[in-house]
Amino acid sequence: MMHFTMTRRMPAGRRRRPPVAPPLAPPGTTGSGRRRAAARLPAVDGLRAIAVCAVMCFHFGLGMSGGFLGVDLFFVISGYVITRLLLIEWHRTGTISWGRFWVRRARRLLPAVLVVLVAVQLWLRAGAPPELRTTTNAQTLAALGYVSNWYAIVANVGYWGAPIDATPLTHLWSLAVEEQFYLGWPLLLIAVLAVSGSRRALGAVAGLGAVASYVMVTAFFHAGGPDRAYMGTDTRAGALLLGALCALGLTRRAPGQDGSWDRGLPPRLRTAAGVGLVLAATSLAVLWTTVGVHAPAVYEGGLAVAGVSGALVVAHVVAAPRSMAARLVGARPVVAIGRISYSLYLWHWPVHIYAIHRWPGLGDGRSHPPASLVAAEFAITFALAAVSFFLVEGPGRSARRAGAVAAPLIAGAVLVFGSALWFQPAPPVEEQNGVLIHGPAR
């Protein structure tokens, strides 16, 4: 297991203080309980619920034309949460174990996505139109390697290439972006802190990286179109890095008297923070309800506005946990949806593609889907997500032995890989000389 130790620089003549001890837990609380308390923020889970509902409304055709930008709020949250956890580990112990970090990420993310890949493979065998096989199998292999975004760009099977009903795993591009960020950002964080010992230096790296990312969005859009600008890891890292900046600004170097690692909002900044929150929330509301994924404005500053606005909202609910905004998004029903948001995201798109094939008129883009059908899509997605959360995600995180999780994961990955690569029936005759995808275009 890879283990990195960083020594914090201290001025000459001063004795290095020992690492800060973890805050005392309430009676009866275990060490794992302390870790969960440090890791979970109810208002942030509530923001996840809002983000996933925006994406689902966009994909299910409920008129939220910019709901796809909910992904950017997800990115900001992910950048914040991951960086916060890494900083807490560093300040608490003086070290960051990159290997343990990746094991935790794998246990958190891989089981649920493997179940979705298995379900899609079973659908291909049990009645899906044969013309889906070639592209879907390729998407499956890309998903196993967490390179779905680059496959979509190279093979032109993103939102601007293949017909929408032919790509049941297109939505996994965003998970690939996050996983690639999880691979690179901890190593960069470790390197900067090890060399400089300065969180300001790390903030400068994150800030410059975010600016460069948003500049690349515009450049790639004008050079090659929206697919490269929208799905590239480099072009979408801006929101993740903005989340990292939030963590750098809001995470203490030691827990406070209440045991929290999060900085509160100073009283003198409450008015300014409230104004910033209103502006940010208004910007998100306008973007989510008015722009379209094909609009040039999205790539000429829209993504940057969405990222900055999302970062301001995240910062506010973290720094002011007793504010009305934090209480609203931290309400129990909202948090409950946020807790299953990962599974909701995984399942909603395959459910929608299945519905398109079951009721072909749904995907023609010429009429609004019946309310009863949309309600059924939501209900099925929520049911599958709940099952996934309680029977797959939960056991994957809580299993005490790594082998108890690793063995099923490896077996499932091998089965999915073999099914996608070798054991599918021959494609239709019209596909045997090349990749042709059929289906109504939007």
What's the gist of this structure?
This protein is mostly helical and about 450 residues long.
- Number of helices, where a helix is a run of at least 4 consecutive DSSP H or I residues: 17
Unreliable residue stretches: 1-37, 434-442
> Rough shape?
globular
Q: Percentage of helical residues?
A: 55-70%
Structural class: mainly alpha
In order across it, which strands form the biggest sheet? Answer: 1-2
The averaged pLDDT comes out at 85
Distance between the termini: 48 Å
Query: What's the SSE pattern?
Result: EHHHEHHHHHHHHHHHHHH
The tally of beta strands, per DSSP, is 2
- What is Rg? 22 Å
Describe the structure.
The chain starts with a strand and ends in a 21-residue tail after the last helix. It is built from 17 helices and two strands. The protein is mainly alpha-helical and 442 residues long. It is globular, with a radius of gyration of 22 Å. Strands 1-2 form a two-stranded antiparallel ribbon.
